[in-house]
From TrEMBL:
Domain HTH cro/C1-type: 20-88
Stored CDD domains: HTH_XRE (cd00093)
Signal peptide coordinates: none
Listed name of the protein: HTH cro/C1-type domain-containing protein
Gene3D superfamilies reported for this sequence: lambda repressor-like DNA-binding domains (1.10.260.40)
Protein species of origin: Pseudonocardia autotrophica
Transmembrane segments: none
Length: 323
């Protein structure tokens, strides 16, 4: 973000600070949750930001009127809460009628720019986007969500915007195919991050894009992943149905990624997430059968993979197994 916080009194009023606090409370968010959401928004938009812990302190100061967000921070807060800096009391409201023509012009300019970006997508741009998805998927397969979440979230947003503004059917189908694969993987990442609501949304985006691309198999994968999320909402440990989780819920195949020998010497042929699912399944089965030693060994391996990949969901499941 630009410039950090400025001293209170440069802009804003006591009532304005109450608006900022009210916007957070309307969403039922704690300051810690708001700081996390703000940090993730900054990551998606490429804005520089403090860590969530420091942001929480800043939010408290802003809401208490002890400091005023700088212009870049006001814009992020407005986007986060679906408002404007003036609507949050962070800037004076424009005089009546003063902003009408400017607002219309700015909106029209934004639409023209979005249409121009989509129209500029040709074979070369599609190849670059496909390479970007392939690279991001490979990074996810090697190092997991912790390493690939930011790049993938930005790519999904970019593909979604391009697809929404393309008027060429062929280009639309190609972009939809890429978005389907990217959103499917994004849903898996949000599941890793213990955010089933976002995973559900991402799988829905993947299914819609796959149908637009004429790819029923990917649409079916997205539907099956939603079914899995629905089942997991009950909080039960995964059942052993005689098939691996990888077989029941195959990884996205929109982009083929080759996994050769890992630098550690671990040759599995599977992405990190699928290896983690297999070991988790082994740990759960051993736990249910009362095989404490095998359960502990599998849980230790799963914990190592979960920490490497940043899977909060797996760590929470392992904590339940260890009780």
């Amino acid at each position: 973000m630009d410039g950090g916080s400025r001293a209170a009194g440069e802009s804003g009023t006591e009532a304005g600070y109450r608006f900022l606090r009210a916007a957070r409370l309307d969403r039922g968010w704690s300051q810690a949750r708001a700081a996390q959401e703000l940090a993730q928004l900054a990551e998606r938009t490429g804005a520089a930001t403090a860590r969530p812990g420091s942001l929480k302190t800043q939010l408290s100061r802003w809401e208490n009127g002890h400091a005023t967000p700088a212009p870049g921070q006001r814009a992020l807060l407005a986007e986060l809460y679906g408002s404007t800096p003036a609507g949050l009391g962070l800037e004076p409201a424009p005089p009546p009628g003063a902003g009408g023509a400017v607002g219309v012009s700015s909106a029209a300019d934004r639409l023209r720019a979005a249409l121009d970006r989509a129209a500029a997508v040709g074979d070369t741009e599609l190849r670059l986007l496909r390479d970007q998805l392939r690279t991001t998927a490979a990074l996810d397969g090697r190092l997991g969500t912790a390493a690939a979440h930011g790049p993938l979230a930005a790519l999904v947003e970019q593909l979604h915007d391009l697809l929404a503004h393309t008027v060429c059917p062929d280009r639309g189908a190609a972009l939809a195919e890429l978005l389907a694969g990217a959103a499917l993987l994004a849903g898996d990442q949000e599941r890793d991050r213990a955010a089933p609501d976002r995973a559900w949304h991402a799988y829905g985006v993947a299914a819609d894009a796959a149908r637009r691309a004429g790819d029923p198999s990917t649409a079916e994968r997205a539907a099956r992943r939603r079914d899995r999320l629905h089942t997991e909402l009950d909080g039960d440990l995964p059942e052993d149905h005689g098939k691996s989780l990888v077989e029941r819920y195959p990884a996205p195949i929109a982009i083929t990624v080759e996994f050769d020998e890992h630098p550690s010497g671990d040759v599995t042929g599977l992405p990190l997430r699928d290896r983690l699912e297999e070991v988790l399944r082994e740990a759960v089965a051993a736990h249910r059968d009362g095989r404490a030693g095998q359960a502990a060994g599998a849980a230790a391996r799963a914990r190592s993979l979960a920490l490497r990949g940043g899977s909060a969901r797996a760590l929470a499941l392992l904590a339940r197994i260890g009780r």
